[in-house]
Amino acid sequence: MRSRFQYAALAASLAGLAGPVAARAIDADLSCALSGHNFIEPLVASGAIAATPYRVEDNSVNVFQPTVTGNLTAYGKNVLAVLGFERDDPRFKTGKGEPIADWAYGVVVIGGADAVQGAAQRAASPAYVHRVAPLITAILCKKGDAAPSAPASAPSH
Length: 157
Prior knowledge:
This protein is of the alpha+beta class. It has one domain (22-142). 24% of the residues lie in helices and 26% in strands. The protein has three helices and eight strands; from the N terminus they run αβαβββββαββ. It has helices at 4-21, 36-45, 113-122; strands at residues 24-25, 55-56, 62-64, 72-74, 77-86, 103-110, 128-133, 136-142. Strands 1, 2, 3, 4, 5, 6, 7 and 8 form an eight-stranded mixed beta sheet that branches. Strand 7 (128-133) and strand 8 (136-142) form a beta hairpin.
């Protein structure tokens, strides 16, 4: 007879296998070539994230919750929250302190900072990668961090 733990482990494994099949990868958007508005608006329009933030940080970063059908991933990691801000844009609420930048956007993912940093570097993303908690990592683009217009040259072997 199988234990409940074995069934739970099997169910979790199968759920993990099913998730990435329908996932929407937003890796290319983390090139930091967009504005906060141009990152958030398509996600809202497609129903991937809630239309209003569930939290606004003091630095005006708006935190949006992915919807059940959103199933977003960044660098192969599941997205827990989507971050965005653009100064003077009615889509975003302003926090109590100084805004982080004229615009900023990114995501919070399930994954260690080292693994996420490695994936961002392989994608040639200039985004900031910051450990929020064990296995919770933020990826953030801010104004002034735009990727170079010419593609990066491949590393020599």
